[in-house]
Every structure is written in C-alpha cells, then in structure tokens.
Amino acid sequence: METTQPDSVADEARTVKALAALAQPQRLRAFRALVVAGPAGLTPGVIAEQLGIAPSALSFHLKELANAGLVSSEPRGRYLIYRANFAQMNALLGYLTQHCCEGQACELTESANCIDC
CA nearest 89: which of 106, 61, 65? Predict the structure, then answer.
C-alpha cells in the first residue's frame, strides 16, 4: 500500500531539494544565466563559456538542477538546449513567501532595519 504525503510535506521536500541545488555558486550562476536567457534557453557550451566553467563540471551542475526540477533540457539537432523551469522557480518563490508578513505588504520600515540595534 502506497502512502502519500500531505501537500505541505511534499512542497517542503521539493523546496529543500531546490534550495540545496541552488546552494552552490556554480549551479546558482548557471541557473541565473538560464533565467536571463528566457524561454530560448542556452546550450551547455554557451553556459560554460559565459560562466568560465569547465564543460565536465557544468554537466554535473546541470544534472543537479534538472534533478531538482529547476531546469529542463531538450535535444535540438546535435545540441541540448537547457531552459529554466519558470513554473518551478515561481512555485519555489511562492512557497517561500506564502503568508508573508501576515498578509500585509512586505516592506521594511526605517524602524525595522535594525541600524540602531
């Protein structure tokens, strides 16, 4: 018999997996490059060149991002095109900001910035 996790536990597990994938500088830089590229995406060669990352290391990082659901790849001829998964990125941001500031606008006031702390 298969048991299912409540949505909040499943959402939490996806969030932890995504944040763990992004908690490495080269993966974060690669993900940001794909976000900037938009729906057109980038080939691994272009990403490696832009970021100064060895192609073999980049391959490992892209696999980790894909495993976390943050990027997808599509074969196009001899190349793979990697794209940011904007739906997953937005879900991650939504999870992190859900119920933010008890439903009020999330702006810091001068008294809340702890300069005088």
Answer: 65
